[in-house]
Specification:
This protein is an alpha+beta fold. It has 9 helices and 9 strands. The chain has 2 domains: 137 residues, Jelly Rolls, CATH 2.60.120.280; 100 residues, Arc Repressor Mutant, subunit A (Orthogonal Bundle), CATH 1.10.10. Strands 1, 2, 3, 4, 5, 6, 7, 8 and 9 form a 9-stranded antiparallel β-sheet that branches. Helix 1 packs across helix 2 and helix 7 crosses helix 8. The protein is globular. The two termini are 34 Å apart. The relative contact order is 0.12. Pfam families: AraC_binding, HTH_18. InterPro entries: AraC-bd, Homeodomain-like_sf, HTH_AraC, RmlC_Cupin_sf.
Length: 254
């Protein structure tokens, strides 16, 4: 069966077919850090998934998909209820696909293709019949899909270890980070610019935006998001969100 239950253990590398698909609805699930020999396309139909990589924090909102090339260690955390589809491709099928993790838009065609691929039997012959065409369309759509800025680069400098240990919490103000790390604001700024391409304030704002999106999708209220993310009022949070995305939270959700 291709439908994966919440507590089922699944290892795509133990199968011989070039494509393995699964469909599942999970709630409050943590995959733990893992890797596999196959490339993975993880598509969130409903809900939101947070993916942690060695050098990036990644958000996967509804109607988007994460492409994870073969051999890359990753951890997927799902809050509340997440309905998703996932396909795993042998390395030979991944050669023309992106070589780095990316979040892509899921076109109507890719969405239509993913459903029968995700629920296909594990012993499907992908070299015959309609499955040949489904696979070809899928590979083409992944390769040509527009990428979304949903990856937050993580600094690797050891002086920032206290920050990286608390990624699920609101990053502190710069002066507090100085006290935690013993590094000056100028040093912290140089590290972030060198390793993330952003100032610390820009990085912190991007973190807040990604967490706001995650909470909004999983049903948190506007007031909860504003308070938990350190905004003085709901209106201040709405202004921040619109300034970052061009849309109010309500319009973005729709």
């Amino acid at each position: 069966m291709a439908w994966l239950h919440a507590h089922a253990r699944f290892d795509p590398d133990r199968f011989t077919a070039p494509v393995i698909g699964i469909a599942s609805t999970l709630g409050d699930h943590d995959s733990g850090s893992h890797r596999h020999q196959r490339g993975q396309l993880l598509y969130t139909r409903e809900g939101c998934t947070r993916i942690t990589l060695a050098q990036h924090l990644c958000l996967l909102p509804p109607s988007r998909a994460a492409w994870i090339p073969p051999g890359i260690s990753h951890r997927a955390v799902m809050q509340r209820s997440v309905d998703y589809r996932s396909i795993y491709l042998i390395p030979q099928l991944c050669q023309a696909l992106p070589q780095q993790v990316c979040i892509i838009e899921v076109s109507p065609l890719l969405r239509a293709v993913l459903e029968p691929m995700a629920v296909a039997a594990f012993d499907t012959d992908w070299q015959q019949g309609r499955f040949v065409h489904l696979l070809g369309l899928c590979l083409s759509e992944i390769a040509e899909a527009a990428q979304q800025p949903m990856l937050l680069p993580l600094p690797q400098d050891k002086r920032l270890a206290p920050l990286l240990k608390t990624l699920t919490q609101l990053p502190p103000e710069l002066q507090v980070l100085e006290q935690q790390t013993g590094a000056s604001s100028r040093t912290i700024g140089r590290i972030f610019q060198r390793e993330t391409g952003m100032s610390y304030q820009q990085w912190r704002q991007q973190w807040r935006l990604m967490r706001a999106m995650e909470w909004l999708v999983t049903g948190r209220s506007l007031g909860y998001c504003a308070s938990a993310l350190g905004f003085a009022s709901d209106s201040a949070f709405i202004a921040f969100f619109k300034g970052m995305t061009g849309n109010t939270p309500g319009h973005w959700l729709k």
